[in-house]
Every structure is written in structure tokens, then in C-alpha cells.
Amino acid sequence: MAKDQKTTKRSTLADVVTREYTIHMHKLVFGRALRKRSPHAVKAVKQFAQKAMGTSDVRIDPSLNKALWARGVKHTDHRIRVRIARKRNDDEDAKEKLYSYVTYVPVASFKGKSAKQRGGLETSVVDEE
């Protein structure tokens, strides 16, 4: 890279956004020891949110935690639908300016054309209410 070129890092402070994602949990917990599947699923959701939103501070809603643990420690769902909201941190002495808040979105089915027609599978931007 030449000296006269500057690399500008884009600020995410103005990017307060909410998106819905479908996470393929089966590929993230496959091959894990049975008693470590649900704990690893929670960590995998946090890692997914960090990568998707670019924030290191990720907070998980209790409803999502309950959904991940609904079938016990051994059996996790193959897919899960989540809504990730990137929000401003109101705390003055916080390390990070933004944090991600991950909530659970119940979906009837991930299979078939009807789920795609309802817009249930693709990543979508959600308007904040």
C-alpha cells in the first residue's frame, strides 16, 4: 500500500439497526460432546452476533436462552431464528459505544416454499418500533 493512500475505517456509531437472521445451529454444535451442546449453542449465537454486527458486547435475551435450552442439554434445534439489534450504550463509562441485543423469533417451520414466501428464512432488516 502506498504512503499517500489512507485506510479509513467506517464508523458504526450511526448504524443503529435491527436485523433478523436464521442461524444454522446444527452445523455449529455437530460433533460436540452431548453434554456440551446447549452451552456451546449459546456461545455460538454470541459469536454469530459479534461477527454479524461488529460489536464485542453481545447480550442474550432470556427468551432466547430458554429456547436454546428447551430440549435439554443434549438436543438443540437444527435452526433458530433470531433478531439482532445493534443499540447505543447509554452508560458513560462503558468500554464499547454499541452493543448487540439478541432475541428469539418463533417460526412455525423452516421447510417449504410457504416459509420463504412469508419472508421467514432470508436475512431481513426490521424497522424499530
From TrEMBL:
GO cellular component: cytosolic large ribosomal subunit
GO BP term (any one): cytoplasmic translation
Pfam families linked: Ribosomal_L31e
InterPro entries hit by this protein: Ribosomal_eL31 (IPR000054), Ribosomal_eL31_CS (IPR020052), Ribosomal_eL31_dom_sf (IPR023621)
MF annotations from Gene Ontology: structural constituent of ribosome
Native source organism of the sequence: Absidia glauca
Protein name: 60S ribosomal protein L31
Keywords from the UniProt entry: Ribonucleoprotein, Ribosomal protein
Taxonomic lineage of the native organism: Eukaryota, Fungi, Fungi incertae sedis, Mucoromycota, Mucoromycotina
